Amino acid sequence: MSTEIEVRYALGPNEVKGFDTTQLRNEFLVEKLMQKDTVYWVYSHYERFMVGSAVPTSSPLKLETLDALKAKTFLHGRELGIINVGASGSVTADGEVYKLGYKDALYLGKDTQEVVFSSDDANKPAKFYLNSAPAHHKYPNKLVTTADANVLHLGSLATSNERDINQMLINTVVETCQLQMGLTSLNPGSVWNTMPAHQHDRRNEVYFYFEVEEEQAVCHFMGEPQETRHIWVHNEQAVISPPWSIHSGSGTQNYSFIWGMAGENLDYDDMDKYQPNQLR
Predict the structure, then answer these.
(1) Run of H or E residues at 144
(2) Residue 104 phi, psi dihedral angles, 5° rounding
(3) Known binder of ligand: residue 45?
(4) How wide is the angle at C-alpha 80 spanned by C-alphas 95 and 127, nearest 5°?
(5) Which residues bind Zn(2+) per the record (predicted)?
(6) Is 220 annotated to bind ligand?
(7) Is the pTM of this model over 0.85?
(8) 76 marked as part of a ligand binding site
(9) Separation CA 3–CA 184 (nearest Å)
(10) Residue 198 assigned ligand-binding role
(11) How does pLDDT run across 206-248, given as a tens digit for each residue?
(12) DSSP letter at 77?
């Protein structure tokens, strides 16, 4: 097994205004997720948020601490959210086994000592998508299946954004310090996510796109409302959205994405919205 980490520093809107396509992708696109037999991380200095993946095939994968954390264990001062976007698998946390099917989620609290990822079938591995944020208090570990999620049905076919928002690791479902995660699926015929576009000045957010067919793509929009930029995203890739940036996207076909965020509050509706006619 191997563990890889990439560190990305925070940038402000003034620096990003002059970026070309390559610079924009290098700073905000996470392309190397879902590597087999690897625990992969990007450590972002926006809210010290971490986005990663674990795909165990031939043998289980252990969550190891990293030099960047300066801690004896990975979760010494952190909490972890996990959503499985592959075949069935399990996560063992301090000896307790949690079975995760497709789109099931697991919250692991601060000071969980040992975490191991496993697939039920090495030929059809689980794909664990990971988000982590600093934590000041230990809350209980909790499995949240798709049946446990709080579901919001929003949008319409008329505006090409009919979708189901599955709120999974949020404070109305599970206690967390600051981490929140959920899963949004667009219905056939709908391609736009997160309209109206918005900013979270008090939170960082990351979008992980999946169920994007091989020949299809999603155009993710970011930047200040009056200085927007775009990044083309493919299956099982993520985009880091800074607090000063909007986040929205449109695909060449319907798709799903996982949103994860952390910051100074747990108010899901704490956002500054911008209608389509306000964007530039």
Answers:
(1) strand 142-144
(2) -80, 155
(3) no
(4) 80
(5) 198, 200, 205, 247
(6) no
(7) yes
(8) no
(9) 29
(10) yes
(11) 999 999 999 999 999 999 999 999 999 999 999 999 999 999 9
(12) S
